[in-house]
Structures are given as structure tokens and as C-alpha cells.
């Protein structure tokens, strides 16, 4: 089926855009109780713009609720241990951002054992069986591993889109190699150390030659003879830290079996939600934002479920 005829689902990395709003919006917005809501205002503007521009029929927003309770923490307790927990003001705003998402009739994905990446990955995997293409709205490099032939990733803030070929342009590896690549060179954002002495370029070169991490470790004796700077040292490091690399791959690989509701209808946006007006009052949205939200919620611009 041609890409233009395939149904499209937009899968949004909600937590990323809440954090971006928290850091970029001035601290001059407060709700009816006097609490800061700068992140909520910024996130709501982002969501309105996306809905107005794309008019998506199927979409979901995924949020993280598992900073310390993810299945990855059980595997590797140091996972994301370098991150501070959100301060109470931001934690409160996350709850309000989730409320806005639901008030706009958008499917929300959240779980205490699986991260937003896993919820998006599992949703994308299920949609593919129904002939859907997916647009992952996020700048996170980890999502590159999910991109199939017809899928896209969209960095909304920079308005940059790329498919599987764009993953190779950015990282030097193909989508199916991204988890192995991150296991080798590490990911400081998630506190994954990788194999000592193996950086991004070396990891990409090794995967270009061997294809995947398992093949690399099985044929590690060949590494010393490759035309790589410090090849002998690299081989020694891989022998010493090979099992750690396999462990790290369990962290870097996005799960495709997270508990999500099956089917495509769950991603259809509902309109005419009654909870929107009280939220606008509580969050003290201005006239412009209220009018945008009302237009997006109106059943006159699209049928409600």
C-alpha cells in the first residue's frame, strides 16, 4: 500500500514536551489556587498547534510514571539514577497536563513498570499489523530503533522529520542496530555506561562490520585485526565487558510487549468532552487558548465517538 494511502497514527512523547515547557516558559502563570502552571501552558500550546496543523484521526500521548519503578530498574538499579525526581511544582503540573490530554479526548498511555518509549513502541508494533504507519513525535534518539519502512520521527520543535534512512544519517547505524549501538557506546542521559573505550564512531564501525552485538561478541577475536584505531585494546575491552554490553542492551531496547489496549479505535480522538471548561477555569487560561481548545473540542469540526 502506498504511504499516502496508509492510515497514520501520531504517537507523542508527552513527558518530553512537558519538560521542554517547564524549562522554556516564563514562571508567570498560576492556576486558581496560586500554583505555577507554566509547563501546563506551554504543553497545551504545543498540543493545540499539533492538533491544528495535523488534524490527526488516530493519536496517543505517552507519559512516564516509572522513573524509579521501571522494569529496567530491577535489572540495573543504577538506571537513570543520575536524574533528580521532578520537584513538587512540576509533578503537580504533570498531573494537570495529563488532565488536559484527556479533556481533549486523546488516548493517554501511562504505566508504572513501562516507560513512555515502551508504550509508544508497543502501540506502534500493534498498529503495524493493521496497516498503519506511525509518526513518533519526539526528538529522542532511542526511538530510531522503532522506525519501519513507512514510519517517521518528528522533532516538533525544530520541524524536522526523518524515516529509517535518517536514523543512519544521525547515528551511523540502521534502526535494527540502535539498541546495540547504545549498549556499546552508552547513553549518559539514562546512566548507561556502555563498554569502556568504545565511543559512538567505534560502535557504529563495529556494527557495520559485524551486524549486531551478538555476532560481534561471538567473533570478538577478529576485532583486533580490523582497521580501527586501538583495535587490540577494543577487543580486550569487549572480552572483559561483553556480558555487561548484553545487560545494557536489555535497557536500551524498547519493549514491544507493554500492556496497552488492543485495536485501533482506542486511538480515535473523542470530542465534546465536558471536563475541558472546568480545567480552563482552574488553569486560568486566557481567551486565545480557551478559544483554540473549544474549537478543537467542538463536535461541529469532527464527529465525536
Automatic annotation (TrEMBL):
<dbReference type="InterPro" id="IPR036279">
    <property type="entry name" value="5-3_exonuclease_C_sf"/>
</dbReference>
<keyword id="KW-0540">Nuclease</keyword>
<protein>
    <submittedName>
        <fullName>Exodeoxyribonuclease IX</fullName>
    </submittedName>
</protein>
<keyword id="KW-0238">DNA-binding</keyword>
<dbReference type="InterPro" id="IPR038969">
    <property type="entry name" value="FEN"/>
</dbReference>
<dbReference type="InterPro" id="IPR008918">
    <property type="entry name" value="HhH2"/>
</dbReference>
<keyword id="KW-0378">Hydrolase</keyword>
<dbReference type="InterPro" id="IPR002421">
    <property type="entry name" value="5-3_exonuclease"/>
</dbReference>
<dbReference type="InterPro" id="IPR020045">
    <property type="entry name" value="DNA_polI_H3TH"/>
</dbReference>
<dbReference type="InterPro" id="IPR029060">
    <property type="entry name" value="PIN-like_dom_sf"/>
</dbReference>
<dbReference type="InterPro" id="IPR020046">
    <property type="entry name" value="5-3_exonucl_a-hlix_arch_N"/>
</dbReference>
<feature type="domain" description="5'-3' exonuclease">
    <location>
        <begin position="5"/>
        <end position="270"/>
    </location>
</feature>
<dbReference type="Pfam" id="PF02739">
    <property type="entry name" value="5_3_exonuc_N"/>
</dbReference>
<dbReference type="Pfam" id="PF01367">
    <property type="entry name" value="5_3_exonuc"/>
</dbReference>
Amino acid at each position: 500500500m502506498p504511504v499516502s494511502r496508509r492510515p497514520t497514527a501520531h504517537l507523542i512523547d508527552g513527558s518530553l514536551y512537558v519538560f521542554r515547557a517547564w524549562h522554556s516558559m516564563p514562571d508567570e502563570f498560576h492556576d486558581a489556587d496560586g500554583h505555577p502552571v507554566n509547563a501546563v501552558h506551554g504543553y497545551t500550546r504545543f498540543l493545540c498547534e499539533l492538533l491544528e496543523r495535523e488534524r490527526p484521526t488516530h493519536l496517543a500521548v505517552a507519559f512516564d510514571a516509572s522513573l524509579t519503578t521501571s522494569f529496567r530498574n530491577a535489572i540495573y538499579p543504577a538506571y537513570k539514577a543520575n536524574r533528580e525526581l521532578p520537584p513538587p511544582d512540576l509533578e503537580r503540573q504533570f498531573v494537570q497536563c495529563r488532565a488536559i490530554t484527556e479533556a481533549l479526548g486523546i488516548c493517554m498511555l501511562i504505566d508504572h513498570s513501562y516507560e513512555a518509549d515502551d508504550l509508544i513502541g508497543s502501540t506502534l508494533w500493534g498498529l503495524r499489523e493493521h496497516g498503519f504507519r506511525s509518526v513518533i513525535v519526539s526528538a529522542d534518539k532511542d526511538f530510531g530503533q522503532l522506525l519501519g519502512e513507512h514510519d517517521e520521527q518528528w522533532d516538533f520543535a525544530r520541524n524536522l522529520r526523518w524515516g529509517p534512512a535518517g536514523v543512519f544519517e544521525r547515528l551511523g547505524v540502521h534502526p535494527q542496530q540502535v539498541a546495540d549501538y547504545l549498549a556499546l557506546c552508552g547513553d549518559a542521559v539514562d546512566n548507561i555506561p556502555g563498554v569502556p573505550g568504545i565511543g559512538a564512531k567505534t560502535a557504529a564501525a563495529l556494527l557495520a562490520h559485524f551486524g549486531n552485538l551478538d555476532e560481534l561478541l561471538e567473533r570478538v577475536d577478529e576485532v583486533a585485526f580490523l582497521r580501527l584505531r586501538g583495535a587490540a585494546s577494543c577487543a580486550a575491552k569487549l572480552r572483559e565487558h561483553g556480558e555487561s554490553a548484553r545487560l545494557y542492551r536489555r535497557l536500551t531496547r524498547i519493549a514491544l510487549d507493554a500492556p496497552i489496549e488492543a485495536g485501533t479505535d482506542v486511538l480515535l480522538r473523542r470530542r465534546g468532552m465536558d471536563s475541558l471548561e472546568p480545567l480552563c477555569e482552574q488553569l486560568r487560561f486566557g481567551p486565545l487558548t480557551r478559544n483554540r481548545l473549544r474549537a478543537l473540542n467542538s463536535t461541529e469540526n469532527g464527529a465525536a465517538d
